[in-house]
Amino acid sequence: MRAGNDGGEPRAIGGVVLAAGASSRMGSNKILLRLGGVTLLRRAVDAALVAGLDPVVVVLGREAELARAEISDLPCRSVENPDFASGIHTSLRAGIGALPPASSAAVVLLADMPFVTAPMIWAVAQRHLRVGHSLVLSDYAGVQAPPTLYARSLFPELLEADSGCGKKIVARHAAEAARVEWPAEVLADVDRPEDYERVRAELEAKKAECAPTS
Fold first, then answer.
1. Disulfide-capable partner of 177 in 70, 107, 135, 160 (CB 3.0 to 4.6 Å)?
2. For residues 152 and 131, what is the distance between their CA atoms, to the nearest angstrom?
3. 29 near 66, Cβ under 8 Å?
4. Is residue 155 packed enough to be buried (19+ CB in 10 Å), middle (13-18) or exposed (0-12)?
5. Where are the alpha helices (DSSP H) in the chain?
6. For the whole model, what pTM was predicted?
């Protein structure tokens, strides 16, 4: 996503899709689970691309080759985090570090949040472009979760090898952050088999509601 700043120069907002979790509570690699015929990984990357983020960096860990093959036809860049088992902060660091110098900000997404859509991502990026806040948070009825935008001024803090660095940055800069509000029911991640079944049932129900009647 590119937009002119006050001086007329383009500003590029990149995307970082975190998809390197160990999936220990799921058993299988959750980012390769399918919803409506599409894997969680591809669903997240598609949303980032449709929202106009450029470039989109996908951080992979477990079964990286299988995951990379799933998105090989998409215009994104994948990076592997060999240290993914040490925590999500290592993947965040890998993703931010892979962005080019031209990226003025980054929207960070989780691949296991299937209800996050391209319009949501676009709204978060647009809030930054309109108001210039260095941090834009998504607020789900009082709960903060991705997509989250960090301006380049915060990249050095994100690159610190510190567990929980993302949450610490949010806490440190909360007073100066902009917020985009979303309904609580949109906040859902897929960590366990029962989460997957619940989300799949919700999507099937919504599909049935939208189906034409004879």
1. 135
2. 15
3. yes
4. middle
5. 40-50, 64-70, 88-97, 118-131, 155-158, 165-173, 193-210
6. 0.90
Dihedral through CA 110, CA 112, CA 113, CA 119, nearest 10?
60
* Integer Cα distance of 102 and 3 in angstroms: 12
pLDDT tens, position by position, 64-106: 999 999 999 999 999 999 999 999 999 999 999 999 999 999 9
Which residue has 């978060």 as its token pair? 124
2 token code pair: 């590119």
CATH code at 2-210 = 3.90.550.10
Residue in the block written with tokens 């034409």: 212
Question: Whole-angstrom Cα distance, residue 10 to residue 13?
Answer: 10
Compute the average pLDDT of residues 51-74. 96
The predicted-structure confidence for 142-168, as pLDDT tens digits, reads as follows: 999 999 999 999 999 999 867 677 888
179: how many CB neighbours lie within 10 A of its CB? 15
Average pLDDT in the chain: 90
Give the residue extent of every domain in the chain.
2-210
Cα angle 163, 122, 212 (rounded to 5 degrees) comes to 115
* Angstrom distances, CA of residue 49 to CA of 11, 18, 83, 99, 162: 17, 14, 26, 15, 29
Compute CA distances 74 → 5, 13, 71, whole Å.
29, 18, 5
